[in-house]
Specification:
Layout (H helix, E strand, L loop, with lengths): L5 E10 L7 E6 L21 E3 L1 H8 L7 E5 L7 H14 L3 E6 L3 H6 L6 H7 L2 E4 L19 E4 L19 E5 L2 E5 L6 H16 L7
This protein binds iron/sulfur cluster.
Length: 214
Amino acid sequence: MNAPALNVAASHVGTEALGPGVRSVVWVQGCPFHCAGCISPDWIPDRPARNVQPAELAAELLADPRVSGLTLSGGEPMGQAAGLAELVRVAREIRDVSVICFTGHRLERLRVRPPSPGVPALLTAVDVLVDGLYVAALNDGRGLRGSSNQRIHHLTSRLADCGYDFGQGPRTAEIAVSGPEALLIGVPPKGLLNAFDTAVDAVRARTTPGGTPQ
Ligand code: SF4
């Protein structure tokens, strides 16, 4: 039986802003939560985006030989857990990548009441899970998490001693521009998101006929 196709909002090959080493990242479309201040509100609606088979996406994400890990984000990865578990399985046939996954669900809930088929398989495949909802008031500008209530779970020992400080390390972010699209990659340091939105609006105003920012 074929694994379910993924509904992907965006992806990027080769970033150093979302975990240790050079990684590729997948942001899935659709999230059941509505955290105030979510940095990716366009990816909350459960609507069709890019429909792609896990094997096709795995080959794409690992095309750069420098890539040593995958980061799964969104949207809510646990809503598409079966497809993401298959993505990781196929990716690891190509290269033994580490896997970091963000989720708004708490780990305890995922284990007791998984929100979609494939959650147990995905949890087995993930090395580091960053869990919990984003709380803007608890955004302390530190670590690979949006706010300090979110927890870092080393589900395997693979990245536990790699020297990367998931909880308190400095944040970095990258901006990838492709045609009219600009993608902010990483957990943005405080203030960067507003600056990014302002810059994108300014560029659109200069390049859109009529000049009205969207
Ligand atoms: S869980 Fe993440 S993607 Fe979903 S609304 Fe909250 S911050 Fe946004």
